Amino acid sequence: MQPFELTVEDAAAAIAARALSPVELVDSVLDRCDAVEDRLHAYVTVVADRARRAARQAEREIREGVHRGPLHGIPYGLKDLIDVSGIPTTASSRAWAGRMPDGDSTVATRLTDAGAILIGKTHTHEFAYGLLTPQTANPWHADAVAGGSSGGSAVAVAAGTALFALGTDTGGSIRIPAALNGMVGLKPTYGLVSRHGVAPLSWSLDHIGPLTRTVRDAALVLRTLAGHDPSDPVSVSAPADPPASSPADVRGLRVGVPGTYYFDRVDPEVDAAVRATIDRLRELGATVMPVELPLVEYVEATQWGLMAPEASAVHEESLRATPGLYGPDIRLLLEAGHHVSALDYLRAQRTRSLISRAWGRLFVDIDLLVAPTSPITAARRGQETVRWPDGVTETVTDAYVRLSSPANITGFPALSLPVGRDSAGLPIGAQLIAAPFAESVLFRVGTALEETRSDTGRLAEVAQTDIIHSASDR
């Protein structure tokens, strides 16, 4: 096994035992970048010289007995919305070409303090306002989308060009690419991870979180990221420090399975894989019970009613000054947001409060929900719509956001983890949702599920050939 194939947990153990040096690990990851990046385009910028200097420093520190924790010497990727001093933050947009931040984001500071080593900035769908990341290729199949908007981060982890990466999630932008690339993606509780120094899309929906190859790795990274930051006005302190790991025992846990919404209009192979995961939890000793989700008919309107005007407000001056520097799809969305009235925005805020309170009451009787992350696996490049057997047609973007946006509206923590692959070899993700600050429940259940699988932590195969979908038009 090459060092780039190690999980964060295994690499950290090897570094602590002096069986692996940060220099060896970073060199392995950079060599992997050289081998696959021309096919995948996960990165906007690779800072190889900076990474090698940081690796040598980490090696010296560890040799001298200074060990900063489990991320010391671990190479990672950072979504290109997240500021690092001396490295451009472009948001994958011509509007921000060459933009140089004057300081580090809080999450970058915390990772540096923990000894993690930045490999580079990963591609995002422009300004995180999309779910495809068209610049980046899915490593499992060459003609499939990577998902987004944190597609570059997910692909870097899936391909071994980072051991972990950070993304942002406004309507599913961590969890969707995690599911489509066979990775673990965590959207923490709203406010648990600081957003200071991170380009906003929708300030009331934005979250920062890790993409990793295992649930245990996600827990390790979150422990470093979480904590109150006075620079972020919505930052909160968790009731307790997030655990670095959780016992893989689900006995006694109450698992809610939605009777509607999450299993409406879902590809049969996705449905089967997620229901098999639920059966596995039952076999492991969890109590599985049906639940009815309240107010789901308002989810889509609430998501767009919040996100569209907030995103347009963020970009109002820049869009007016340089509209031609935005991609046509993003410019159209930003212009549309100007037509949402203040009254409609206030209605969306009120409805969000009603949904959050109603969903919060669910967790009096259950410990978590289990559902699909996405109703379909990775769409083909150029595919615009999904046709369902009941005659309904929806856009690929609407299909992806439909099952992920409730956790953004409520702010509840949600974890996507791989639970299988479809007949075309594309990964399938299951989504676990818990009450606020109950990330430990997600880690506990996710780890238990991973221990039942033989492919946990598996890297993608970095396919070079086209694929044939079992249902060509979905």
From TrEMBL:
Residue intervals of the Amidase domain: 24-441
A matching Pfam family: Amidase
Official protein name in the record: Amidase
Alphabetical list of SUPFAM superfamilies matching this protein: Amidase signature (AS) enzymes
Signal peptide segment: none
Native organism taxonomy: Bacteria, Bacillati, Actinomycetota, Actinomycetes, Kitasatosporales
Disordered: annotated segments: 230-250
Record PROSITE patterns: AMIDASES (PS00571)
Domain of life, source organism: Bacteria
Species of provenance: Streptomyces virginiae (Streptomyces cinnamonensis)
